[in-house]
Amino acid sequence: KRLVKALYACPRTALDLLPQYSRIAAVVSQAYSDVGELLCQELAREFRWLFKGKKLHNLEGKLRNARFLGELSKFRVAPPHLVFVHCKRCLEDFSGHAVDYCCSLIETCGGFLLRSAPTKERTARILQSMSKMKSAKPLNQRDAALVSYACDRANPPEKQAVVLKPRTELYQFIEWLVMIRLCDGTEKNVESVIRALRSLPWDTNEASLIAKFVLKLARSKADAVPLAADCLAGLHQFRPEVTARVVDQILDEFDEGVSTPPPLRALRTAQRLVAYAALLGECYNFSLLSSAHVFGIVERLLGRGHSVTPGFEAHMAYRAAKASEDARKKIEKRRADALMMERSDEDESEEESDGEDIDEAARIASALYRLDEGIEVDPRVPCPGDPPSCFLRITLCCALLKTAAPCLLASITTHGPLESALDDIQRSFFAKPSAPLGPRYALLDALEDVRRHRRALQASWPRRARQARRRNRPPPPKVPDHVYALRKGWAAADDACRARLAANRARLMLQHRPVAEEPVTVEGQRRSDIEEDDEDDEDDDEQQTASESESGSSESESESDGEEEEEETKAVADDDAAEEEDDEDEDDDEAARTDDGRLSGGGAFTGSCAGGTWTSLAVPPQTAYLSPLLIQSTL
Hints:
Blueprint: H1 2-8, H2 18-29, H3 33-50, H4 59-74, H5 80-92, H6 97-114, H7 120-136, H8 141-154, H9 169-181, H10 187-198, H11 206-220, H12 225-236, H13 240-259, H14 269-285, H15 291-303, H16 310-340, H17 348-355, H18 358-366, H19 392-410, H20 415-430, H21 437-459, H22 461-470, H23 490-511, E1 515-516, H24 527-555, H25 561-591, E2 606-609, E3 612-615, H26 628-634
Antiparallel strand pairs: 1-3, 2-3
Helix pairs in contact: 1-3, 2-3, 2-4, 3-4, 4-6, 5-6, 5-7, 6-7, 6-8, 7-8, 9-10, 9-11, 10-12, 11-13, 11-14, 12-13, 12-14, 13-14, 14-19, 15-19, 15-20, 16-17, 16-18, 19-20, 19-21, 20-23
């Protein structure tokens, strides 16, 4: 009795414990048959008490009674006729809580009773009666749905068997290698998979099958992405077409995914593309891609569909002019209001308005809509595939850089492009009005990972330098000082991108600086002989200058006034000659220009400098309006 009381006291809010309680009762009933009988009597007594009168309360207790009785009947503890009696009692007044009780009871044990030979016909009649009651009685939408679900759960409709596509043995073998064998995660398995793939006949479509299963593995198991990249790296030396197929399919998926408007995009597309971005990052870590490819993919994702058009330039110019005008009017109105106010003492607001610069305020207001020349891509350009509420492109770029960050920072030459790529991502991020938490944390995680790997690289530099010193090797290069900062907003990110663009233009200008030609050697004379002759000539000139200065100092005391006048006249004549030479140089410089101000000769020009002639290569458009003398003096 104590056991029956404990089993019957199962809480009504813990219905998931009823199958375990029923199993305990079934096991104990094999030794003590009174346990099952007493438990069924208690449930029957509770049922009569619950449905005494039409009381619409204690629904949880009724559902617990139905579930408990159904579980006991499945373990053959409760007799089937007790279930049928309760169902018949509910069908007599099929409304209110009786519908919930009957549906819960049929849903729990209806399938078991329908498939048992002794109770099959009677259970089928009860299900038929429930269906007729549903059609005959005006049940509400909730009760009708409960009846339909209970009948379908007890007797589900017949479905056609799924016909599997015929697969070849080679297809099944490649699928087993990539999807099962490779996922074990040990290096021996990766090597064995690579050897098995190399031993394939490679006369049909093996490359496409391997690429298909590698992409399937990447999007189904995130932990297996490094293993898939490792397998591609081991196979790339012998079968590079597999890697090419994988990268081409990923780029095609990127183009299709980011170009499709979000309403027409499948729900699984975003997760698939994030997995593909992680696979591309692992491919870079295994030297299957270069850093130029990685940064090119980031630029391709951010700039697709955001090309600057003449209409957008005109629109931004109009908005900049309007913002500047509004700022001017606002300040003028503030000053006029301050002048109209009659106060005895000056207010602090008046002093601020009087000292405020209108031009500076107008420049700051129009800075949000500025658009520099030479910029071909701007994230503010409207694009159907990248509306203001879509952050898929930013998430993909963050996933790619986050995966490839350790190896990108290991190379000294990629620190600058990495910082530029992060600035571009932030520029696109702040171009949108508001961001949900997911993309925001993706950007923060990418920046934090980059900083963490950079700090680890800086901390390990002394140890690597000591190791190189012990091995008599040159020390490793120091880590460049890049901040990888989180910008405060659109203006800060845009200023960083503009500064980078200006630095690139200055670098291009310095690449085309003049090159001094080597002195022409006389045939049969060595270069060292010419240098020795030059040094001897310089020594003779220095000795001659020293002797002249000594003689000049001794004779200066005995010079007459006439000689001083001759020297002054000679100095004036020398100055006039120098001015004439400068005028001739300016005339030659102007003659070398064309009508539009560009240099004649296609951008390549020559001039003279100390030590010989110098020649400049093709001049970029930024320096095409500078004269040769100005470029020479600047450099």
